[in-house]
Specification:
This protein is mainly β. Helices cover 0% and strands 50% of the residues. The protein is globular, with a radius of gyration of 13 Å. It starts with a strand and ends with a strand.
Length: 123
């Protein structure tokens, strides 16, 4: 069982930066692939970025390439989402998700989810 808690969301102006954190419970965090998804009002939840359990592989949605970076600290049971050059279209609730020994890029692949954190980018 893995429990995930996101933090770091907030209001930022376009062009600004924000770092989200996702803290995980459990002793086997280093065995879980981690992903970030987002859901904008009136839209379906979409894949943003993911990282393998060792941190050696990362996957990005085209919309965030060159702007967002994912990293993890297995000693702290935490995964980070660094978001730079934010745009109003990045406004959404951001969720982190975990999957044992896998790194899906689709929502259905994950079986543990956080409660989400709101990111709002003003123009």
């Amino acid at each position: 069982q893995v429990q995930l808690v996101e933090s770091g969301g907030g209001l930022v102006q376009a062009g600004g930066s924000l770092t989200l954190s996702c803290a995980a419970s459990g002793r086997t965090f280093s065995s879980y692939g981690m992903g970030w998804f987002r859901q904008a009002p009136g839209k379906e939840r979409e894949f943003v970025i993911a990282i393998s359990w060792s941190g050696g592989r990362t996957y990005y949605a085209d919309s965030v390439k060159g702007r967002f970076t994912i990293s993890r600290d297995n000693a702290k049971n935490t995964v980070y989402l660094q978001m730079n050059n934010l745009k109003p279209e990045d406004t959404a609730v951001y969720y982190c998700a975990a999957k044992y020994k896998s790194v899906p890029t689709t929502e259905i692949g994950y079986n543990y989810w956080g409660q989400g954190t709101q990111v709002t980018v003003s123009s």
